[in-house]
Amino acid sequence: MAEEAFARAVDDGLKLTKRLVLPGGGGLPPPRPPQGMDRDDPAAVHGAWLQHLLPAAPMAYAVVVDPGAVDSPDVPSYQPHVYGRLDPPALIPLQMREVDLRVDCVAGGCATAEVALRARWWVHCVTRSRACHCRVVVPMGHQGSILGAEVTVGKRSYNTHVIDTEDNSAVKISMPESGGLLKQELFSLTIPQVGGGEDIFATIRWSQKLLYDNGQFSVEVPFRFPQFVNPLPKVFMKKEKIQLTVNSGVSKEVILQGTSHPLKEKGRQSEKLSFLHEAAVENWSTKDFTFTYTVYSGDLSGRVLVKPSTLRDYDDRDMFCLFLLPGRNEDRKVFRKAVVYIIDTSGSMQGKPLESVKNAMATALSDLVQGDFFNIIAFNDELHSFSSCLEQVNDKTIENAIQWMDLNFVAQGGTDIMHPLSEAMTLLSNSHGALPQIYLVTDGSVDDERNICHTVKTQLVNRGPKSPRVSTFGLGSYCNHYFLRMLASIGKGHYAAAFDTGSIEGRMVQWFQKASNTIVSNISIDAIKHIQEFEVDSEYIPDVSAKYPLCVSGRYHGKLPETLIAKGHLADMSEISIELKVHHVKDIPLDKLLAKQQMDLLTAKAWLSENKELERKVVKLSIHNSLPSEYTRMVLLQTSLDKIDPAQQAKNKPIKQSSPDERSAMPLRGLTLGFGDVTATRENLTTGFGDIKPHEQFEIFEKAVGCCSRVADCFCCMCFIKACSKMNDQCAVVMMQACAALACLGCFECCSELCCGGAN
After folding, report:
1. What residue spans carry the region label Disordered (predicted)?
2. Of 148, 567, 573, 760, whose Cβ has the fewest other Cβ atoms within 10 Å?
3. Cα(431)–Cα(435) distance, integer angstroms
């Protein structure tokens, strides 16, 4: 719903641009629909056009309420004046004059890229005598998290800050919300009252996860600009710049596999490579920036990166990051699996969410091989099992399971998670020598989540090394993602989530593949032999998957040796030892790269234990790294600048700031997940996804209410009273008689109901 409303507002804005006259004369060329549309289906064409209008690169929009303000700031068009106001406002994409993209990738550690984008937009669509709000929208990459934003407009500067929610003296929230997440991985800021013809200088920073597939790391940054943000080439020179650095984190050779833009290698130093693309272009980039590379590793390998704590750190112990690359050894066998899929089929899963889960389940079942065992549990208020025991994988059982899902995956009832988990534990008491695994998929939150964690942990500890691995997947915003993350951490499994219906199937398939391709289990580190204190952030060290590197962070006190040994078990139950060299990093911001992962795990622990001390650690970590958390909030602070030098303004560096008392803060919304919504789960609300439309009957009801309210407004307004005062006597008599007749009919119906019970 939010995406469609946004696209419609952009569509309205593009229609308004027909009023503009370019500096060279003539109007703006109308935007062309993307190629490949089926023109025989108008509805499909319109839907594809709206999808095309969603931002696929950092964009800025003028928020237009008064269409009369739309005009070229330099060359007035002398268009006829337009009366009225737009509700909702139209969004006119602003022309971009400059863009600079910087991407820093670290393959080792947690496989993360830190992205910084600097751009300059021109308010080309509002006359200089008027002003409007402007919205900056930035689509972030895979699992993107906003790190900060700085915007300068004229003599005003805006910067994001993270503040403690309990510290009311930090700043004064005196202005309405100014942005946040329109949806997951789509960040927006609203800058108030930008004058026509002014430039907007913005720097946005975010982090995102690297993709990993068959030994290849890749980064993909949204960088597809539409044609209508290009200024005239004869009037404005467009300069495009892309900087890329790659730090492998290991003493292995980095091999370039492919890139979307022409990059020149500028330097190669030890484990660090740098590339540059800089050119004057006629049109901005029409494709995402992608870069793919491999870190040569024939077999399992890894490293331990360590960094001393800082004065502002929440913990005085030193930091470490242990990672293992699965390598590309095709002879490495994957564990046989005994899997129980636990799928939420409550009423809130109706429609596309449950259909997407069913499709992902069909893919997961088809990936099972001979020797695996499985079962499926569909749960709501009740529990429905595909079989009373684990079924051996073959073509017949897989076909029967898919048919069973078609019949039993029906969205109805409430949510009860403990019962199916206990049933799955019972089924896996005999796993036939395979690695027992539980996959839990839910979109709801329940009251006994802490009890579930404690109960599952007790059962897993009692079973020892052969305990089931518990992996969790959260759908939408109504489930408690910290509960699911904690449950996966306790169960040595993997956690993942989807926050819009379009990404459910793809992310679930990736999650299944990552969790089900175990090549090393029961990992242990011999660090405790050398130092007294060595603590990992997660409850336990997960198993190594063939589909993604393992990354474990934590804290230690003491001096680590030059080499640590990681031990585990292979699929044939033989023991493997992996040598991990300890590397003291200087040029890798390990604390910032691991901050998001550490903060999420600490928040999950704080939620489970209800520990205030852990909450304060999260607050310190959040403020230190400018990352919003459940106990902090991100705000946009406005600062007035006394003087602006044009050269300094281009660099987005204010010269002199006003006093803190003059700064006003605007909160940013939707940047945290919360701890679930039990009430929404009980009521089976389906709006945990922002892109699900309400039911048709509610739409009809809303339209009817809107119509009736407008009629009522007409009969209750001052205009109607004035009209009655000018009515002649004959009309007044007729109206009184009509009202009396209606009243008599109403009284007759009421009396018949009371006296005769409604009988004729």
Report:
1. 21-42
2. 760
3. 7
